[in-house]
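In practice, a research group might receive sequence data for several interacting partners and want a quick structural hypothesis before committing to experiments. The following worked case mirrors that situation: the sequences arrive first, and a predicted assembly follows.
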Amino acid sequence: MNKQLKLAKRPVGMPTADTWVLEESPIPTIKEGEFLLRQDYISLDPAMRGWMNDAKSYIPPVQIGEVMRAGSIGEVIESKHPNFKVGDSVTGWGGVQQYIATDGKGFYTVDTKLAPAPMYIGTLGMPGMTAYFGILEVGKIKEGDVVLVSGAAGAVGSVVGQIAKIKGCTVVGTAGGPEKCKYVTEELGFDACIDYKNENVYKELKKAAPKGIDVYFDNVGGEILDVALAQIRPKARIVICGAISQYNNKTAIKGPSNYLSLLVNRATMTGMVVMDYAKDYGTAAQNMGMWMAQGKLKSKEDIYTGIDNFYQTFQRLFNGKKMGKLVLKISE
Amino acid sequence: MNKQLKLAKRPVGMPTADTWVLEESPIPTIKEGEFLLRQDYISLDPAMRGWMNDAKSYIPPVQIGEVMRAGSIGEVIESKHPNFKVGDSVTGWGGVQQYIATDGKGFYTVDTKLAPAPMYIGTLGMPGMTAYFGILEVGKIKEGDVVLVSGAAGAVGSVVGQIAKIKGCTVVGTAGGPEKCKYVTEELGFDACIDYKNENVYKELKKAAPKGIDVYFDNVGGEILDVALAQIRPKARIVICGAISQYNNKTAIKGPSNYLSLLVNRATMTGMVVMDYAKDYGTAAQNMGMWMAQGKLKSKEDIYTGIDNFYQTFQRLFNGKKMGKLVLKISE
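A structural hypothesis for the assembly, expressed as tokens:
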């Protein structure tokens, strides 16, 4: 049988267990030009929360009754498709379901001998691509820049900071709790990490970056964005990648009160969506693979098991109980 | 005697009459390498409010006891300077005072036969330059763009919108009251103007720009910025030039709640300060002069008289009782 997690209702604020419903149905059969993918791992990302809102965005919202959207990786177990053969490892937007019959649109083959499967939905997948293009193309970092990254222990932030280090920047992260901060500085090599749950971010940032920051890569929004704006240098670039602190708001999002710092500093705040860079994913994966081989880029996946445990695992995105890229193994 | 308006205290919220003090002193004498300028007109600008705050900004704040900073234009009446001779019309940062002895740094000569003196502190001065570089260099308008301009009847906004029309854009303005809106559409040639004091800006903008906006030139901040963010198109550019609705706040500035629209639309919000473009002022003045000669660019100065009336005139920046560039004639 095929277990599929479907959106049952639109959440207000933090999703609850009954936001989704897990259904069983027969494993789908494939038509000519399709293949059957056994999905082994799905990616859990903060962006999922946004996809559940009935609002105009960069992709259509998941509809009630539809399988929950998610990045996935698995193995082709049956094929009537010329380009995908049985045994291929394939990644794409498979959704939270154990099997999918697809014509392959939006899916591509990867080599799980070069890197473990979960990494292809993490550092070598969307989160890694987001980090790569966000910090290089939007943040436009150059050697000597002072870079601040929020969500520094997360799937995107951890890669952003490491790339900035590779490029010769001074890098300060923010993360929740001493354990994550230790990981960020000691394992990932950031110059400093501010524990926003236990420290005064404004004061600690003044200490860590006394001359201010040139680039802020924002995954969280809220107070940290305001603190960053207060400490940007002339011509600073703020990359708006996400705002996890605001995704479950029941009222209006908190806008950055300090946005006029953009004016004073002739600075820029730019939003990004990784899909825009699809044509260059190959180059990015090649560079990141090289940095990994050289030991300059580390990837950590935090893997949980069981499609039945989707909700508890999803909650970890927002309660902070995870380290690195959150992945759920859904094959049995 | 020389009447000088000096900052008496730092205002909280809207300045009051006793924020400044008017003093009289003898007309200054000049040293070798200086000239004496009789200041005829001063420019009144919303930015003055920011210069009064004791905060880090793009220029140092005016100190208590200092002459209030203002752009000015006047005539050289005595000179020991090789480059400025008696009778020259000279503009610069002369401040709110009737006479100034200066070495000429930051001042330059203009030809008041080509355009009337007040225009050199308006459309051919800082406000005009702000409009020119803001919409062209930061807003990066191109033919066919839909452009929204707030403060459309003001010194900067009126020029922004006219330049956008010259460049083949569809231009929508916002202004306070039907009289200003009529001026904006009928005299300045904007395609539409929304009276934010009497109309629902969100609904009217939907009507005026049903497909959304490519560029928003923001002079006001607050609610209109949020409405604009809600209606930007992919790759939109928001130029942050000012936030007059927030300058007299006694509490924190209202940040734009809808800023995540930048992410969804891969859009950019960029702050600007006109001084950065100083080396290209000449080209800009040449182009704007040409557009004026061709009847494509109109300039309106709203001129009041008497340095004694500074405070009442200053209030017009914020109560809306002015049309076009606010100027005070201070020579007697």
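Before designing any experiment, note the following. Chain A has two domains: 2-122+299-329, 133-275. The mean pLDDT of chain A is 96.
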